[in-house]
Write a structure and sequence with these properties.
The complex is a heterodimer of chains A (307) and B (393). By secondary structure, chain A is an alpha/beta fold. Chain A has helices at residues 4-8, 25-35, 49-54, 74-90, 106-111, 114-123, 173-178, 193-205, 219-222, 229-238, 265-268, 275-279, 284-306, and strands at 41-45, 65-68, 99-105, 128-133, 184-188, 210-215, 245-248, 251-254. Helices cover 39% and strands 13% of the residues of chain A. The mean pLDDT of chain A is 97. Chain B has 2 domains: 3-247, Rossmann fold (3-Layer(aba) Sandwich), CATH 3.40.50; 254-388, Rossmann fold (3-Layer(aba) Sandwich), CATH 3.40.50.920. Chain B starts with a strand and ends in a 5-residue tail after the last strand. The longest helix of chain B has 30 residues, at 218-247. Classes of the chains: A alpha/beta (307), B alpha/beta (393).
């Protein structure tokens, strides 16, 4: 495992000069992920912040082969590219080792691209799908997705007088992908770069499909100071809101255990999207419910990892 | 000489795909296209092709994976029908806009609702402005020949556009017909090796495909796409001639059947042309100077050639196997009439929307159209520009 100094000396595949917001978690995830891959890569991107802000024609921030097709089909698109690679390799027309990585936001992955992702994983393509989960449709202006946590205010689940933010809990996508019984599934956070890089390395090296869910804080959507991105990501891990684990050939393993499990409020309070849960007394039960939800999920995860 | 065989349209198309031996096929089953996917699966399973076959979970993914494979630098194909094409819609446009030479057999079937599995052209007609070249086939022979020619047209450096090869569901796809197949080596030599100039697997020369393209460049890219469609006209004719030398069956934009000395004519696409030829023969025996124009190429629309061919006639009837709900007639009618507009001495044109949802069309129906056309020719005026043939009102 390379140290941080060595990693940062590697040529960047996503260059600076892209137009993502200051403090955006997505490019940090992408940089760290691509640092983990030694071979040439072909990257596919779903429509979303990452795509629109890195490739405004005639400019591109990508120094590797890159394609954007549409919103819901990046997994299918990359599966076609990977099939093309296998075909040409079989025919002796190409001999290079090439890796295939798809990036999608939570809207493009949990929601509209879910079928395409499930299909590509089931077919067994040798590709890695990395979801950068910022918990809403940030590119179109912060609309709720099935990755938005309960109680969060978005522009389509506003904190209203009658309905205090999003009514439903998040979809457990990492668990759903593990249920696909693919060779490798993991959850990562940019705050734990060594964990993230090690997992992406495993994911690209494994034979067959791999899925990685990466937390990507969004200063605009979560309503916090852009300087606090990595700190917030760390709080998500330390509160067990976003545990770091992997599922390798069906074996669940916790890759980081917080020294002290912090109260969920430490993660929620700095974010403007949860403000109404703290300022309105009648919303207190939602905070309690969220803590109970995280506790239950954590206990279940620990149990899975012990088995 | 090729081999004479009896095959269904779908078998003939699958056989052409076997001879083309694409690097990647990504497809999803839908009636009446399903046989193509099944036959092709056997070719893959028996090692008769080198193709990587991607058995996707939907048509949207079929087109997406085909696009990915083509962008990667491969010869890639898919096939579909009806609602499957409708589900692909978004990526159908993207494939054309990426200028990827994908070839897709479309086995024409009515669009839902109501759900109906039989033939009309509402599926491919809906995609007529997607930027794809569209070839229509009269029978299994033409479907087979068109698929092979489509590769050459799509991949031509001046074109680089995807091609739909349309054939009528069940009427062509499921009926056994005599046809001649070319030898494998001849097809291979005719289509040649595919080499893309810019492709994703050329990792030493990284490429960004599908960038955000705003008001400062989008328009120019669309203009280039329109120019490619203009270029396609010449290439379609060149490929059609070359295919003629290879097979003895030359192809152009359309076939003229007893049209040169005709006074009245019918314009039609697909399998109905065969029925119409029988009607023309009967009418000719009665001394009626009836002719037929069977349109093969709908995109690009050969408006100049159609105008030159039809201008001297006394009256023309169009048969549209799709409704466009414009209240101005079917898509073939409106485009044909637009092509003739302003031409001195242009004939009156009448539209007959017919055969929707697979409603049968017989020789007697077509004879009725010609008889109606005789009346129009005599009077020089139309009773109604748009008619629904054989519908219960």
């Amino acid at each position: 495992m390379a140290n941080l100094k060595e990693l940062s000396a590697r040529p960047r595949r996503l260059t600076s000069g892209h137009r993502l917001c200051a403090g955006c978690g997505a490019p940090i995830v992408v940089q760290q992920a691509l640092m983990a891959v030694d071979d040439p890569v072909v990257v596919g991107c779903a429509t979303g912040c990452l795509e629109v802000a890195t490739t405004i024609y005639p400019y591109t921030a990508w120094r590797c082969s890159w394609i954007h097709n549409a919103f819901e089909n990046t997994a299918a698109t990359v599966s076609g590219i990977e099939a093309a690679y296998r075909s040409l390799k079989k025919q002796g027309k190409i001999d290079q080792e090439i890796k295939f990585i798809a990036f999608g936001g939570d809207g493009g992955t949990y929601d509209i691209g879910f079928q395409s992702l499930s299909g590509a994983m089931e077919r067994g393509h040798n590709m890695v799908y990395i979801c950068y989960d910022n918990g809403a449709y940030m590119n179109t202006g912060i609309q709720r997705s099935s990755a938005t946590p309960k109680g969060a205010a978005t522009t389509t689940s506003p904190a209203g007088r009658v309905i205090p933010g999003k009514p439903a809990h998040r979809k457990d996508l990492t668990g759903i992908m593990a249920a696909h019984k693919i060779p490798y599934v993991a959850q990562v956070s940019p705050s734990h770069w060594n964990d993230l890089v090690a997992k992406v390395k495993k994911a690209v090296e494994v034979e067959g499909p791999a899925f990685i869910n990466a937390l990507a804080p969004c200063p605009r959507g979560w309503r916090y100071d852009p300087a606090e991105t990595v700190k917030l990501a760390r709080l998500a891990v330390d509160t067990c809101y976003w545990p770091l684990f992997e599922v390798e050939e069906g074996k669940w393993r916790l890759t980081y255990r917080p020294g002290e499990k912090k109260p969920l409020e430490d993660f929620l309070k700095p974010q403007g999207r949860f403000k109404h849960l703290f300022t309105e007394e009648q919303n207190r039960p939602i905070l309690e419910e969220l803590q109970a939800y995280v506790d239950k999920g954590w206990e279940e995860l620990l149990k899975r990892c012990e088995d | 000489m090729g081999k004479r065989v009896a095959l269904t349209g779908n078998e003939a198309i699958a056989f052409a795909m076997r001879q083309i031996d694409p690097d990647v096929v990504a497809a999803y089953p839908i009636t009446p296209q399903t046989d193509i996917v099944q036959y092709f699966s056997s070719f893959v399973a028996d090692g008769e092709v080198k193709t990587e076959f991607v058995t996707v979970e939907s048509e949207h993914s079929a087109m997406s994976a085909t696009l990915g494979a083509s962008a990667a630098g491969c010869r890639a194909m898919t096939a579909t029908s009806s609602n499957g094409l409708a589900l692909m819609w978004e990526v159908v446009y993207i494939t054309a806009s990426f200028r990827l030479p994908v070839v897709m057999p479309v086995v024409n079937r009515a669009l839902s609702a109501p759900i109906n599995i039989h033939c009309d052209h509402s599926d491919s007609m809906g995609a007529r402005d997607s930027g794809w070249i569209q070839l229509y086939s009269e029978n299994a022979q033409e479907a087979y020949d068109n698929v092979i020619q489509a590769l050459r047209i799509a991949e031509h450096a001046d074109v680089r556009l995807p091609v739909m090869v349309c054939s009528d569901g069940f009427i062509i796809s499921h009926s056994m017909q005599n046809l001649e197949l070319l030898e494998d080596e001849k097809v291979k030599a005719f289509i040649g090796e595919y080499k893309s100039d810019y492709y994703l697997l050329d990792v030493d020369n990284p490429l960004t495909m599908g960038a955000l393209d705003l008001y400062d460049f989008y328009f120019e890219h669309k203009r280039q796409q329109a120019e490619a469609m203009v270029n396609a006209k010449r290439v379609i004719l060149d490929v059609g001639k070359e295919f003629g030398l290879l097979s003895g069956r030359e192809y152009g934009f359309f076939e003229k059947y007893r049209l040169d000395d005709a006074e009245i004519a019918l314009v039609v696409m697909g399998s109905t042309a065969g029925t119409a030829k029988a009607a023309v023969n009967q009418l000719r025996e009665q001394g009626i100077r009836a002719g037929l124009l069977k349109l093969r190429v709908f995109r690009p629309f050969p408006h100049e050639e159609l105008k030159a061919t039809l201008s001297g006639l006394k009256a023309v009837a169009v048969m549209d196997r799709a409704e466009s709900f414009s209240t101005l007639g079917g898509p073939l009618f409106t485009e044909l009439r637009s092509a003739l507009y302003g031409e001195p001495g242009a004939p009156p044109v009448v539209d007959h929307i017919y055969g929707l949802g697979g409603r049968d069309i017989g020789v007697e129906d077509i004879i009725w159209i010609y008889e109606d056309l005789q009346g129009i020719a005599e009077k020089g005026t139309l009773r109604a520009p748009v008619n629904y043939l054989g519908v219960r009102e």
